[in-house]
Hints:
- The structure is a single chain.
- The protein is mainly α.
- It has one domain (7-95): Monooxygenase (Up-down Bundle), CATH 1.20.1280.290.
- Helix content is 75%, strand content 5%.
- It has four helices and two strands.
- Helix 1 runs parallel beside helix 4, helix 2 runs parallel beside helix 4 and helix 3 (50-70) runs antiparallel to helix 4 (73-95).
- The radius of gyration is 18 Å and the shape is elongated.
- 18% of the residues are buried.
- The model has no long low-confidence stretch (mean pLDDT 92).
Amino acid sequence: MRTIVGSVTRVSAETALAFIASSYGVLMAISPLLQIRAILRHQSSHGVSVAYQGVLLVGFVLWFSYGIASDNWAIIVPNAFAVVVSALTIVVTRRFRLPVL
């Protein structure tokens, strides 16, 4: 182990950064709950793109799968949250989509 700054080693700095990035990733993953709250409040998902959420969902599933394959919890945890919240966003968006006449 090489010392980078003072007594901080490469491993501990990497671990700290992984924890910080993963924690922020969870916050980003649950942020669509704000969109769901707005949809429920207005009882309409007008202006919310299901296709966009679908593209994000595919990406989250891929990153989650990569995290599993590489046994990297810093990738697994935030993307697990993201998969669930993104799928929920799609369900709620479709449920409150106004019918096209």
